[in-house]
Amino acid sequence: MEIQERRVLLVTGENPDASLDYIAGLQGTLQAFGHGMPTRITVQYVPDRLIIAPPAFGRYLETLATLEWNSLEELTTAILSDFTNELVARWVRVAIIAPEEAYPGVGAHEVMIEDHQPDWDNPALLSRLPTN
Predict the structure, then answer these.
(1) Residue spans of the chain under pLDDT 70
(2) Among 14, 28, 125, 129, which one is most buried in terms of CB atoms within 10 A?
């Protein structure tokens, strides 16, 4: 699947108030890496002009589950790239957590990555987020 085919699944709508900084979040799961339990995906973002339609996020995750990923890191960076490309959000965080005990001897494997627009900063807003 081409990147653009994947990204077009992230259907957007207009931000109801682009003058405000607020955090929008989407969570879902997908089967990946041959694990019996689903991998949990969380995307949080501070919208600029656009927001993601929640049903579109579900369809997007269904499509990601059909693709082969070499690592959680590869999947996480792909999602971040897709969101930053389609939304041009002020700030985006993607966190992915593999199922518990997915790897022998490893209790947990998780990846979190963030990006933001140049010169955007709102530490008071971001400080309200849980650290995990």
Answers:
(1) 35, 131-132
(2) 28
